[in-house]
């Protein structure tokens, strides 16, 4: 338990440490927008179900992009839902292009930006064309880094560009949010050429950034461990090493390690239960369960659920939505 929370005021703790005020404001907004629907079963129960869904990580399903990126918990929850929904792609060994991953993400978040997926593809492919197909595991771990540490990586790209242009470590300025907004897009374009900088100097600059950075960032020790492996490093080489780091993955806490990525006994049991129900359903015909499997997405397609994405998911485990998505 973090003892530093006792040094904060109540307002600072609620706003900065737990984001309770953000969730409370969203809960009230949702209640007012759908008053007739939610007040039927009681306001008290509504708030209980809302915060239960936040706790279980189901609250980001079918929500707008600004909401799913609003807090570290939201980002980690969305990454986990994406994994559980589409891990079957990895089990099948399918390779998908960036545009296909965009389509999958937009099933869960209709306004998810294509730019983030394209930048993720650059991490995976590096020297290959960005429209080349990618495995699910390679894309997923790179997407996790890009999405969860978005602001941090924007700042790192500016630092990297300064070092690449020949500035000494003493003159490299840790970027502010405003300077990142102005320079990050330019830096991304220029970094497509895979040049490299001194790893030790790069590590020092990143550690200085971590000391004053307000957004999520990996631990300095994890960064140092990555950069100690080579004398020089390219920007996208550094991002790929972050994506492969088990320590960083564990710190985020959204995904299992790579050896267990395609294992999800709870989801497998739920799939078996649904398949069994379809097989014995009076509406199933003599062609057997294969027909039932083909009809399953029609019953609860994520696209159909988009019309209801602002409704609170009342089942705390969220297994129905994830199962439906994984069937797709």
UniProtKB/TrEMBL annotation:
Basic residues composition bias: residue spans: 300-311
Disordered as annotated region, ranges: 282-328
Regions that span the bilayer: none
Keyword Cytoplasm set for record: yes
Recorded superkingdom: Eukaryota
Keyword flag Cytoplasm: yes
Keywords: Cytoplasm, Cytoskeleton, Microtubule, Phosphoprotein
Annotated Acidic residues bias: 315-328
Subcellular location: Cytoplasm, Cytoskeleton, Microtubule organizing center, Centrosome, Centriolar satellite
Family of the protein in this entry: Belongs to the CSTPP1 family.
Protein task: Regulator of the tubulin polyglutamylase complex (TPGC) that controls cytoskeletal organization, nuclear shape, and cilium disassembly by balancing microtubule and actin assembly. Regulates the assembly and stability of the TPGC and thereby modulates polyglutamylation of the microtubule, which antagonizes MAP4 binding.
Identification of the protein by name: Centriolar satellite-associated tubulin polyglutamylase complex regulator 1
């Amino acid at each position: 338990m973090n003892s530093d929370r006792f040094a904060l005021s109540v307002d600072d703790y609620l706003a900065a440490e737990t984001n309770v005020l953000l969730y409370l404001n969203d809960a009230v907004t949702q209640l007012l927008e759908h008053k007739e629907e939610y007040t039927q079963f009681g306001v008290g129960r509504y708030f209980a179900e809302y915060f239960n869904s936040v706790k279980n990580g189901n609250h980001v399903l079918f929500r707008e992009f600004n909401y799913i990126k609003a807090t570290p918990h939201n980002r980690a929850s969305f990454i986990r839902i994406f994994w559980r929904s589409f891990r079957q792609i990895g089990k099948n060994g399918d390779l998908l292009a960036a545009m296909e991953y965009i389509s999958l993400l937009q099933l869960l978040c209709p306004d998810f930006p294509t730019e983030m997926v394209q930048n993720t593809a650059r991490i995976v492919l590096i020297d290959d064309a960005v429209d080349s197909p990618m495995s699910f595991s390679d894309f997923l771990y790179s997407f996790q880094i890009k999405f969860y540490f978005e602001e941090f990586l924007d700042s790192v790209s500016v630092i990297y560009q300064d070092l690449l242009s020949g500035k000494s470590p003493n003159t490299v300025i840790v970027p502010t949010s405003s300077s990142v907004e102005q320079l990050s897009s330019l830096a991304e374009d220029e970094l497509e050429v895979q040049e490299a900088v001194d790893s030790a100097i790069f590590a020092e600059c990143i550690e200085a950034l971590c000391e004053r950075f307000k957004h999520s960032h990996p631990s300095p020790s994890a960064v140092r461990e990555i950069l100690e492996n080579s004398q020089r490093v390219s920007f996208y080489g550094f991002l790929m090493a972050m994506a492969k780091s088990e320590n960083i993955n564990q710190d985020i806490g959204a995904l299992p390690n790579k050896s267990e990525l395609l294992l999800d006994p709870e989801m497998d049991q739920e799939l078996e239960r649904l398949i069994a129900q379809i097989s014995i359903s009076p509406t199933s015909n003599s062609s057997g369960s294969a027909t039932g499997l083909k009809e399953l997405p029609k019953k609860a397609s994520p696209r159909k659920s988009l019309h209801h994405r602002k409704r609170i998911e009342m089942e705390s485990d969220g297994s129905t939505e994830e199962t439906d998505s994984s069937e797709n």
